[in-house]
Specification:
Layout: E1 2-3, H1 9-20, H2 30-33, H3 41-49, E2 55-58, H4 62-71, E3 76-78, H5 86-100, E4 107-111, H6 117-129, E5 132-136, H7 145-168, H8 170-182, E6 184-188, H9 191-195, E7 200-203, H10 215-221, H11 229-232, E8 240-243, H12 255-258, H13 265-291
Parallel strand pairs: 1-2, 2-3, 4-5, 4-7, 5-6, 7-8
This protein binds phosphoric acid mono(formamide)ester and norvaline.
Norvaline binds at residues 80, 85, 116-118, 204-205, 208-209, 244.
């Protein structure tokens, strides 16, 4: 487990999860490796993958994880980069599934800093799983255009595969068309527009790790995007509130919401453990089959 940044949930869930599976996890903190400074990323990847079955990395630059994966002989898991936080979104999706028993057709609203790892992974997961995703944030802090392009491409491909099936099987095609018509990825400015009728409302810190120099500017700019009981009232009556944590009460969310009955943030945090155990097993089994 290579960490360039601090962590509570990611470290704990991977370490406890690996122990529960009968394995062992090794923590390498920011001072231990010096990814790309003490040693090249390629060399770190080659040495590390000669001794372990899986690598999990939390880095500043997304390209550091890509570079690790390029030179590693074992699977590399993104434990958060400046671009994406996929393990968090696996836990979010699991939590949504636990509540609704389905994913397709649900409306997910994200409010706040949209140029953010959590937003990007949520947009991609929504496209893959047939959810309707709307992100609201101020201009200048919108989702990365490349990520939105990727999400739209996923939607387009799932739409076209549905159409192919349409010719072969009317019943299946009807179901598929229902999915492709509800699934979308959208960026807006108005938080009310995003939250209106949503089944799930998500936010994240306004100052992600690495954004500290912009803290004062961000706290001012994002103020209209605070998730309050008034904003939550625009969502579906049974809507749930999610936040990857750590949370800053009084900034991106009020205490009334995050500590209120619609909030599932601790179930969401616990699900990191369960879903990542499944992920690790899946990856280890997959690479064992590949290695045979
Ligand atoms: N949500 C999350 O990734 O938390 P940590 O930064 O504590 O790992
Ligand atoms: N967007 C946040 C997530 C923290 C788990 C960050 O990158 O700091």
């Amino acid at each position: 487990m290579i960490f360039e940044k601090p962590s509570l949930r990611t470290r704990l869930s991977f370490e406890a999860g690996m122990t529960q599976l009968g394995g062992h996890a090794i923590y390498l903190g920011p001072a231990d490796i010096g990814l790309g400074t003490r040693e090249s990323i390629a060399d770190v990847a080659k040495v590390t993958s000669s001794m372990v079955d899986l690598i999990m990395a939390r880095t500043f630059k997304h390209m550091s994880i890509v570079e690790l994966a390029k030179h590693s002989t074992v699977p590399v898991i993104n434990g958060l980069s400046d671009l994406e936080h996929p393990c968090q979104i696996l836990a979010d999706v699991m939590t949504i599934w636990e509540v609704y028993g389905k994913l397709e057709g649900l409306k997910i609203a994200y409010v706040g800093d949209c140029e953010n790892n959590v937003t990007h992974s949520l947009a991609l997961a929504s496209a893959l799983l047939g959810m309707d995703f709307v992100a609201a944030g101020p201009r200048g802090y919108h989702m990365d255009k490349k990520v939105v392009g990727q999400a739209k491409e996923i939607l387009r491909l799932s739409g076209s595969s549905h159409r192919t099936r349409n010719a072969q099987d009317d019943k299946r095609a009807l179901k598929s068309l229902a999915r492709s018509s509800s699934a979308s990825v959208k960026q807006v400015v108005d938080p009310k527009e995003a939250v209106n009728g949503a089944d799930v409302v998500v936010t994240d810190t306004w100052v992600s790790m690495g954004d500290e120099a912009e803290k004062a500017k961000r706290l001012k700019l994002f103020k209209p995007y605070q998730v309050t009981p008034k904003l939550m009232a625009l969502a579906h009556k049974q809507a749930i509130f999610l936040h990857c944590l750590p949370a800053y009460r009084g900034n991106e969310v009020t205490a009334a919401v995050i500590d209120g009955p619609q909030s599932l943030v601790f179930q969401e945090a616990e699900n990191r453990l369960h879903v990542q155990k499944a992920l690790m097993l899946w990856l280890v089994n997959k690479s064992a089959i590949k290695g045979r």
